[in-house]
Specification:
InterPro entries: LAMTOR2-like, Roadblock/LAMTOR2_dom. This is Roadblock/LAMTOR2 domain-containing protein. GO terms for molecular function: guanyl-nucleotide exchange factor activity; molecular adaptor activity. With 164 residues, the protein is α+β, with helices and mostly antiparallel strands. It contains 4 helices and 5 strands, in the order αββαβββαα. It has one domain: Dynein light chain 2a, cytoplasmic (Beta-Lactamase), CATH 3.30.450. α1 runs antiparallel to α3.
C-alpha cells in the first residue's frame, strides 16, 4: 500500500501546466492524473461526460492487475498501457512509480504522437514528483526540539515524583 500523495500549490500549477501542454500538443480529449490508490489528482480537457472518480479507480485497478501480469512473466512492471477502442483510445503511463497518467484520445491524433509527447511529459512530471516526495520527507522528519539531556532530566523528575 502506498502513501497518499501531498502536492504543494506551486507544484500543482506546474503539474497542471505540463498536462495542459500535453493536451494541446497531442490534441487529446482528456488527460487525468491519478494516484496508485485510485484517487484523481487532477485532470485537463473535457471531463463533462465522464465519471472521473470511477475512471480513476478503474485505472488504478487496471494498473495493479497489469503489474501482476508483468510479474508472472518476470517483469517488474509495465510502465505503459494502451487500450484501443472503435472511437476512443487510452494511453496510460506510470510516473515516478506512484502516479498514473491517462491520456484519452480519438482519431484526431495518432498513437505515435501521444506516445512521444507523453514520454516527454512523464520525464518532466517525474522531476516534479521527486521534488514533491523530497519536500514531504523533509516535512515528516522528526524534529528534535528537546535535547537528550532535557529528556533524561524530565524522566528522573517523573521517577522521583512517583517514587520509582
Amino acid at each position: 500500500m502506498h502513501d497518499r500523495i501531498n502536492i504543494f500549490e506551486e507544484d500543482f500549477w506546474s503539474i497542471n501546466d505540463a498536462l495542459t501542454r500535453l493536451l494541446q500538443g497531442t490534441h487529446a480529449k482528456t488527460i487525468l492524473l491519478i494516484d496508485r490508490e485510485g484517487q484523481l489528482i487532477t485532470s485537463t480537457g473535457d471531463t463533462s461526460k465522464m465519471d472521473t472518480s470511477s475512471f480513476a479507480t478503474l485505472s488504478a485497478a487496471d494498473f495493479a492487475a497489469t503489474s501482476q501480469l508483468a510479474s508472472l512473466i518476470g517483469e517488474k512492471e509495465f510502465s505503459t498501457l494502451f487500450h484501443q477502442g472503435e472511437k476512443e483510445n487510452i494511453y496510460v503511463s506510470l510516473v515516478a512509480g506512484r502516479v498514473i497518467l491517462a491520456v484519452i484520445f480519438d482519431k484526431r491524433t495518432t498513437l505515435g504522437l501521444v506516445r512521444v509527447k507523453t514520454k516527454n511529459t512523464v520525464s518532466e512530471l517525474e522531476n516534479t514528483f521527486q521534488e514533491i516526495f523530497s519536500k514531504v520527507e523533509k516535512e515528516t522528519e522528526p524534529k528534535k526540539d528537546i535535547d537528550d539531556e532535557f529528556t533524561r532530566m524530565a524522566e528522573e523528575e517523573i521517577d522521583k515524583l512517583f517514587g520509582t
